[in-house]
Amino acid sequence: MRSAFQFLAAGFLLLSLLAGCRPDQIEHIENGKQIATTLENMAVKRILPADFLHATRWAGDSLTGQADRELRRRLAEQLQAGGVAAALSYCRPESYASTDTLARILLAAPRRFSTRPRNPRNQRAISTDEIRPDTVRRIERPTADVFIYQRPIVLADAQCLRCHGAVGKDITAADYTLIKQKYPTDMATGYRLGDAMGVWRVSFARNGIAEFYTMKTRKVMKPRKPLF
């Protein structure tokens, strides 16, 4: 009984103190929202199985998308500088330094596979059954610590036809001679815009996906606009 009375008395005293405070007497914590966001970001997040799968897609799209953009940029530069002869050696985006840097961060191993590889040493041949439409992503988790991302490689850039298009139409006879000299077993010609040429297949370690998901879902404070 006594403890209940003490509790009520303490509550009444607290309410009295709060009622006596005016808004201009309350001292606000500087950068309070930023501090709260930082503390929330530092909290350990529970990542569910579905979250891992979503993060694998995000990470796969980011890695292969960057590699494809770098490929288009390099090919444009080399084709302009020295034509097909200069560009032939640059059609391996999985081996670029920028791709390798991002792969190390994500604990990933990116590879490309083709139905008709240019160089079998670099690309393993796969069957056409393994290629899906461009809108499809395949996400798998073969083991508890490994995730697999796969998406098609589609010929979507007209400049690629200079090395992979129809011989005599898109590829000149001289350029085709260069291609066969460098890659005697080449099969990577005869494509048209929109054709699926192969697939990107990337394996991710669980820790890399977990870190990527944490960074992807971390809140970012918007910069404050100056008052004056």
Molecular structure report:
This protein is α+β, with helices and mostly antiparallel strands and 228 residues long. The protein has one domain (49-216). It has seven helices and four strands. It has helices at 2-19, 32-42, 49-87, 97-106, 161-164, 173-182, 206-216, and strands spanning 108-114, 138-143, 146-154, 196-205. It has a four-stranded antiparallel sheet with strand order 1-4-3-2. Strand 2 (138-143) and strand 3 form a beta hairpin. InterPro entries: Tll0287-like_dom (IPR021796). Residues 109-204 form the Tll0287-like domain. This is DUF3365 domain-containing protein. Keywords: Signal. Residues 1-21 form the signal peptide.
Lay out the secondary structure.
Layout: H1 2-19, H2 32-42, H3 49-87, H4 97-106, E1 108-114, E2 138-143, E3 146-154, H5 161-164, H6 173-182, E4 196-205, H7 206-216
Protein name: DUF3365 domain-containing protein
Keywords: Signal
InterPro entries: Tll0287-like_dom
